[in-house]
Amino acid sequence: MEYKRKLVDYIKRNLSKGYTLDSLQIALTNQGYSRSIVERAIEQANKELAQKAPVLKEKPVIKYEVIDEYNKPIIIKKPWWKRVFG
After folding, report:
1. What is the pTM of this model?
2. Local structure of residue 14 (DSSP, 8 states)
3. Would you give the DSSP letter of residue 53?
4. Which backbone phi and psi does 2 adopt, to 5 degrees?
5. Who has the most CB within 10 Å: 6, 14, 30, 47?
6. How far is 66 from 77, CA to CA, in rounded Å?
């Protein structure tokens, strides 16, 4: 299992350098590692990286606008009673 730990560390290190999972998987299989071992190492690396990822506490703000047939935004005014009574 020592080789699997080395593969996991190798994958995590190279992901931080900007390599993609696909390129790492191809490189490792070309180096002679079995495909199933490489896939298990990738799964383990993903789990470990997911545990370190920060938890987002704020919700995203969704903005939208209505556009006309000329791709210009249409301003929708509130009814007078919503402007008065909130």
Report:
1. 0.60
2. H
3. S
4. -65, -40
5. 14
6. 12
Residue 86 pLDDT: 66
Q: Which sign, positive or negative, has the C-alpha torsion 24, 27, 1, 40?
A: positive
pLDDT score of 33: 92
Looking at the DSSP bridge assignments, the partners of residue 67 are 73
Q: What 8-state DSSP symbol labels residue 8?
A: H
Domain borders along the chain are: 2-52
Statement: residue 65 has pLDDT above 70:
yes
Backbone angles phi, psi at 63, to 5 degrees: -115, 145
How many CA atoms does the CB half-sphere of 36 hold within 13 Å? 0
Amino acid symbol at 15: L
**Three-state secondary structure call for residue 74:** strand
